[in-house]
Amino acid sequence: xxxxxxxxxxxxxxxxxxxxxxxxxxxxxxxxxxxxxxxxxxxxxxxxxxxxxxxxxxxxxxxxxxxxxxxxxxxxxxxxxxxxxxxxxxxxxxxxxxxxxxxxxxxxxxxxxxxxxxxxxxxxxxxxxxxxxxxxxxxxxxxxxxxxxxxxxxxxxxxxxxxxxxxxxxxxxxxxxxxxxxxxxxxxxxxxxxxxxxxxxxxxxxxxxxxxxxxxxxxxxxxxxxxxxxxxxxxxxxxxxxxxxxxxxxxxxxxxxxxxxxxxxxxxxxxxxxxxxxxxxxxxxxxxxxxxxxxxxxxxxxxxxxxxxxxxxxxxxxxxxxxxxxxxxxxxxxxxxxxxxxxxxxxxxxxxxxxxxxxxxxxxxxxxxxxxxxxxxxxxxxxxxxxxxxxxxxxxxxxxxxxxxxxxxxxxxxxxxxxxxxxxxxxxxxxxxxxxxxxxxxxxxxxxxxxxxxxxxxxxxxxxxxxxxxxxxxxxxxxxxxxxxxxxxxxxxxxxxxxxxxxxxxxxxxxxxxxxxxxxxxxxxxxxxxxxxxxxxxxxxxx
Length: 543
Prior knowledge:
alpha+beta
């Protein structure tokens, strides 16, 4: 009975398949092709050779001027000296008993304290970096550059026993490999050096290093087994699909193009060299060549008499003519070398259409495609700006959009987790007394308090506008007409919120008053200070 059922099921599937194939002959199927076969068959491969991509990308960065220029341009503009942390604790959550104004003021004061401590920590390599070499800014630049070149890498937090604070280690993605002796137990498995549990969650990375005993592997967990603290995570150099285990190099889709573009440039440079080395030829005329003519000699530049044997009875030559052996090697040629032919030769100029006069336009078109594919303005990537204010401003604005998105993504994937780990260790070790943090840290229901203390704003390179006066006037016009807000304009020009700017300005005015400094903006029409206190508008305290 079971065999009969299986046979019927198989026959039914066969009939269904035949029916579908027959119907496909009567109806068109939309698969993206304009006509049958226009796009070719769909590729079924899913394997990505991460190792080869990383090696080729690294080689391209070392040898290709275009790849090196693109990567450097990105890192110098994206990270610059490092994106800056501005702690912004949420006063309404942390100080519920105070009124709104007082809670905001307390939050700013605590933010300043945290910022001071974090600056001291991040600017001390012996405390911050695992190798005791990099500051926070230098660490960011290294992470970004190597993740762009190699596609990814991992950041490891290692708690220092003396300070109780995390020291940070960056591991290039090329060192994250699958060990040969991995034991797949409890449903765990490893793919490209990343260990997953039975539910597909990342639980560890395997770092390969070379020592006295050869290659060794270290298993680095993602989180602590008991504390749940984040220990390591992977940083990617570009976009990836959700099921991708590793990241691809930033220029992986352009390696062949950049390689050939660099070869073309080298060929054009060599063509220019040949043009300079060989100013002219003496072309042979077959009907005038004598029997005694001998092969062409390459002679030094200058007035050179015909070679011996050019005529039946060559006249005696006075002086000495220096002749080099026939060769085509450019390394022994002097500028202005002339190829001398036998008698009856005809002078011909060397080709003047090389290097190609259109190469510059071709080069720009290729770089423009690369810039466009990565969301970058070509003007910024090539550092070429026209005299048109509107065009330059638009290119600058487009790059601002790119940078603002980068700062957000980089903060989420790199700097914010590092800041969270540092702040947690500072609070739990008692080096920074944050009210309510330690009590709320172990209570899942009090997550709002922990999150309110960890809030932080990250600011990247504040690129100057094309014309700051015009930008400021435009902002003022929008404010006067109610078409924008002070907070929007403050973030656009300084990267800080309007509340942060006002609180900072308040403290600066108090400091200026104590120091006796009176800026022009704080004077009335008579030149007297307009803030009160010691330097009042009446000027009585100055007598």
